[in-house]
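Handoff note, outgoing to incoming analyst
You'll be picking up this chain. Sequence as last confirmed:
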Amino acid sequence: MVNLYQGDCLEILKKLPENSIDLLLTDPPYGIDYQSMWCKDKTKRMSKILNDKKPFTDFIPLIKSKIAKTGGILCFTRWDVQQIFIDEFIRNGLKPKNVLIWDKKVHSMGDLKKGIWRQIREHYLDTE
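Most recent structure output, in case you need it:
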């Protein structure tokens, strides 16, 4: 059985039983204060990502006891803030064992017309 949760992770994690998560897949705000420049008309642009002033690592202290003994964590991040996430995992007793890089071949984010801040790689942290 698969259970998917949508909501405030800090509230949901508090309610989950210990050793109950087989896989925690997360894409937290990276702390880059991102807003797409896709549309030239500023009135039609999407809002900035909420809570994106600093890398969002507040969930990390809550997850160690929630991950099943055979479970794992896969955390999306970005190259320039990756070490912040790694350090926080280590500080909380979770040892990163792999960094996976997805070479998308097609860019994302940024001003796609001008080629500014185009990201073609996505980084993932895999922990023990």
